[in-house]
Design goal:
221 residues; five-stranded mixed sheet
Amino acid sequence: MDKVQSQPKGSQRRPSILPVALLIVFIVPFFLPGYTQYFDTSDDTLPKHPSSAATIVAHCRSLKAQAGPSVNFRKRAESDRFVPGTKPVLIQRARVWTGANNGTEVFHGDVLLDKGLIQNIGHLQGLVESFGKDLVVLDAKGAWVTPGIVDIHSHLGDAPSPALDGAEDDNSLHGTIQPWLRSVDGLNTHDDSYPLSIAGGVTTALILPGSSNAIGARHLK
């Protein structure tokens, strides 16, 4: 028979204290004063999203958006530049150049403007009865009506009209790199160039600092 060997005294395995130590490390601190504040989500001192978070996210999304009108552009009931109180306008008997068909489409008819938008074109009837006295009726007598011109390189209000040295505020001759120049600092909103441009069909202009500088900084729309 094989003899059963007994372990010597004192060599028996002792229970490990590691689990107990871990419990102490992770549980006891929760009972210490001030420790639980780091886990209290109701504490007003904890960092929160900035109040402008929605604006920041929208701006980030706009950076990835493709150029062009917004999704609901053609469903607008009112222009974002509409001035409340502006009366609707009906232009009758106009020669309308739409810009369609590679710029060749021209037709004779009427144009209805309301809420800052072109609401209808064609041979329009019954609008006087619909709008009443608020409708402004203009007889174009065959004159041209065209889309508004967007001037993407302009010095309106900075370069004066008439051109006078004492009112020339669109350029700086102190260097070719002038990143601190701003169109708004030299802008004259009473300059004659505004009514002249409007008479020529300009509806939107990007006003730049003068072209004498290789870098001329901030523009104004």
